Amino acid sequence: MDTNQQIVRIGVVGCGYWGPNLIRNFYENNQVEVRYVCDLDLDKLVRMHKRYPSVKPTTDYEKMLKDPEVDAIVIATPVHTHYPLARKALEANKHVLVEKPMCMTSQQCRELIAMAEERNLVLMVDHTFVYHGAVRRIKQEINSGKLGELLYFDSVRINLGLFQSDINVIWDLAPHDLSVMDYLLDRTPLTVHATGVSHTASGIEDIAYITLTFDNNLIAHFHVSWLSPVKIRQVLIGGTNQMIVYDDMTPMEKVRVYDKGITVNNPETEEQRYQNLIQYRVGDMFAPNLDLSEALKIEVAHFVDCVLNGTKPLTDGYAGLRVVQILESANASLATKQPQELPKVGVK
């Protein structure tokens, strides 16, 4: 592809739950021509064609790949199909944006990364929340040093349903917050410990808890569930100076920064060891202004820019690999009921 051109021609495979959102955002980007939408469900293709008459509907994935005018493939299909579909796209010298999680195994992720690097192609993972205005503002707060030394990352993502037939609740819900954690903390966890339970005959876990440990006593915890009577999307980040609450369900003040914390006095005598030497600091709270742009719109523009200019995506294949490694290790922890050590990816 000529990287000096100003139009990226794409094909989108998958018109289910998330695919239409991707199609809409690519269609509305003035540097994109959505050339194909692909799905095996004819009814879904008919609906997409009615909404976007200029886009060619097809059930033939190979047809998209053989079209020399298609520059990039966007994959929004079940996770077990990500690897074979992305591999075929890369083999056809197409740039790839793949929905999260990137693959079913870390080995599959590595193979796709190697293929993309060998062919100088963009491989990007749809970690949408990384592009959310709230998350990007939290990143600014952390990078400013105002929070001080990070102590913990605590996430809750629970609701009633939707039960999945091929993956457990960890693979369904945790990738969102794991990708946010990966972006915000910019550190590699050392261990993962997961516990979970299935309450149906499927044996697929519908409630789970994941704990990650890092250097310097930093800890991260994730609660995911399909069995909650309420929908909660909340992240708490604690530092030695400030603490942040991110509530995605709140229409206003999604991010709140609290000037709260503790001061620990080092004991000087034996008597002081038995005294309470922790002092509490309670200060102001402020809610920063946030960019209210649709996260997926920003992500799509970023992918287009990376394709046109040959730049590295913020959520590249290595970001996808890091998340899949945690998911993979969490499954191993569920099976063995033991913490699992995490290998280092090598690129951050």
Please give a quick description of this structure:
The protein is α/β, with parallel strands linked by helices and 348 residues long.
**What structural class results from the helix and strand content?**
alpha/beta
- Could you say what the CATH architecture of the largest domain is? 2-Layer Sandwich
Beta-strand portion reads: 25-35%
Q: Portion of residues in helices? A: 25-40%
Morphology call: globular
Count of DSSP E strands?
15
Sheet with the most strands: spatial strand order: 14-13-12-11-7-10-9-8-15
Largest sheet: 9 strands, mixed
Plain-language structure description:
The chain has 9 helices and 15 strands. The two termini are 28 Å apart. The model has no long low-confidence stretch (mean pLDDT 93). α7 (169-185) packs across α9. With 348 residues, the protein is of the alpha/beta class. The longest helix is centred in the C-terminal third of the chain and has 20 residues, at 317-336.
